[in-house]
Amino acid sequence: xxxxxxxxxxxxLPLIAILRGIRPEEALAHVQAxxxxxxxAIEIPLNxxxxxxxxxxxxxxxxxxxxxxxxxxxxxxxADALAATGARLAVTPNTRPALIAYAVSRGLxxxxxxxxxxxxxxxxxxxxxxxxxxxxxxxxxxHVKALxxxxxxxxxxxxxxxxxxxxxxxxxxxxxxxxxxxxxxKPGQDPGRTGAAAxxxxxxxxxxxxxxx
Length: 213
Hints:
eight-stranded parallel β-barrel, 8 strands, globular, alpha/beta, TIM Barrel
């Protein structure tokens, strides 16, 4: 099977905000802070409390301004439930070709978790639109650079341990962008803190791009 032609990442800022653990009553305020800072890709993991309500609310309020979706998608029925919320993005933590193909068939833009070249090509052959190196800091920028020698021009995101300080290292190694978790959002924090962290990541991304990564 030939690997499909790569699909460009569909948002202007290739940084995905991961709001793991957020509650429905908190979601809109934090996403507003993220959008105000320039983010246009939001992921609410499916192991968050009340995640369908959170995603439905965020899609209704911000769906025309940002790519909204769910993460830690593990099964076909979860892809069904995610699609039912109006979400457009599905993020997996690992490489399950059958799940990837199913989520794509549901009209979801899939960023598939991977670690090795074999997993990357398996995900792409199944229809994944983007790849998520997880956990990124376990492998490091050198791993990204080596993979880029064989991967097509598919969007690759570093996820796991990415901070404003090391983001540029992964961009220079060949990542398109990054998924940002606990250094951006922790359950229970104030939306103002989320906004400040988001601005720090946007500044780090823009600085790296201005320096040619």
